[in-house]
Amino acid sequence: MARAAVLAFLALLAVELSTVPQIQAQVGAIAGQVTDAASGQALPGVQVAVEGTTRLTLTNEAGRYQLQSVPAGPRTVTIELIGYAGQRRQVMVAPGQTTVLDVTMVPRTLSIDELIVGAEPETPRMRRAAEAAVALERMVGFATRFDFNTESYARIDENDFRLVSASPLSTFSIDVDRASYANIRRFIQSGDRPPVDAVRIEEMINYFPYDWGNVSGEHPFAVTTEVWEAPWKPEHRLVRIGLHAESIDTGDLPPGNLVFLLDVSGSMMPDNKLPLLKKAFALLVDQLRPEDRVAIVVYAGAAGLVLPPTPGNEKAEILAALKDLQAGGSTAGGAGLSLAYEVARKHHLDDGNNRVILATDGDFNVGASSDAEMVRLIERERESGTFLTVLGFGTGNLKDAKMEQIADHGNGNFHYVDGLLEARKVLVEEMGGTLLTLAKDVKLQVEFNPARVAGYRLIGYENRLLADEDFNDDTKDAGELGAGHTVTALYEVVPAGAQVPRGEVDPLRYQPRSDDPPLSDFDDELIFVKVRYKDPDGTRSRLLQQPVADRPRSPSSDFRFATAVAGFGMLLRESDHAGDLTLNDVVRLAEKGKGNDPRGYRGEFIRLVEATRDLGLLERELLPERRYRR
Question: Which of 1, 321, 416, 480 has the smallest set of CB atoms within 10 Å of its CB?
């Protein structure tokens, strides 16, 4: 009897163990190293992707990569890096094994054609379509709509220097949006110069992760400062103020009540819109847990619920709903927003993360779609505790200004997705910051010590400036800080006694004279930093404050790199304050500040600046105003 029981147990165990190879047999892995064919040096930041799947990655500092859970069988791997000839390699992925694929890449002279990432060779079908389009254009009274570019950006007037004697305070809302950098990258990779108003320097700086250390204490974030000289004007100081939020592992995030609000209108047909959108959201679905819920609302001529709230472990059902989406019709954006917020409200989680994720090109043109109406709707809904994330897709009719505005008013953030790697960065690597808010209505106010500072200017944040009295007013809306987010602000400071580069005004009759003795109690302080914020569900703000001493020192690699990014932004904007700064200066500064770059983002930035230089983009005329409406 005992022998029979043992045999039965062993038979059952054998059956259970036999299922493991069956599961493992479905997938394998691909790994290897990418090097420069000429020098043999490792290449970081190379995009390695498996065609027909969502598996992609970047090489690390050693040029190595690894792709897990690749479907077994014959696969095509694409290898791409700016300035190198792209490759497509055929491999056989063995079940349960790792296939080694080492690649050497050949440098190429940069040209516009080589910088168009993702371009496919012309096929007979594409040629016939192009010929048909030309034929249609020659018909009297007929024009093809896809030749028109109606991208729009809000006008930005660069911050100028301010006198401390007249304006001792500088107040602004933080901004964790990163859309501007990805959008600029898209232009440069296409061989175009970005429109001036597409360049928001604070979003460029905040795109990159920085090593601020751990967060401790009663606040969900810490404040760090550094003082250095301004590379474009060494007699000026450069002050870096950083806010860095604590990171939270994906598994520790509160349950998610997520509503995907997806634009499926006719303008979303191109490959870099709805098709890319579906792949991007598939990456997010792969990260969902059983306690998360997802609903999908779509809008075109009308809005509709295509997937009711569904547990995160029912991935097949969610992915099937995404796969079935098709583009067509006009764009009833207002109706879509209303329905998405209604769904989120009905399934609200008191202790969860309630968020609408809007993915669109921003081309709202039917129904409640005016900017004012959109803003009022979103402001009403944010009071219910539902936050908003906006993802922009595509080219040609990108409504950057509108998407940024609704994200700002929806207690949310705005990202531009120019490819699957950016989607992975936003929705996988930075999932906590994208989806979980740790502090809302975060405002920063800096007081400048007249004994040390004659004048200053804030670099960037032009559309985030606040009145000084708004700092203590808890009814005023401001930016949100997500888990793991970092925010960097740079001030260019003119030391006391130096000439402030600005227009002259007559001396004031009734104000203290500039030669009056300073307050000796704070003589060694350069600035005083104050931050106000609310808890995600709070209504009263909390205060964090600290002085910053006037002690310039050797900058960290992070400070050098952030300064390089700011300098690049100033050159793209044709800033009056860039001095004699050149693209070569930016490259040298970025290389010195490259530091630890595990995902290759800083290396990619350096190559982007080099591409801008080699293509002579800054020597080109800015695109006509009619093409990029403000």
Answer: 1
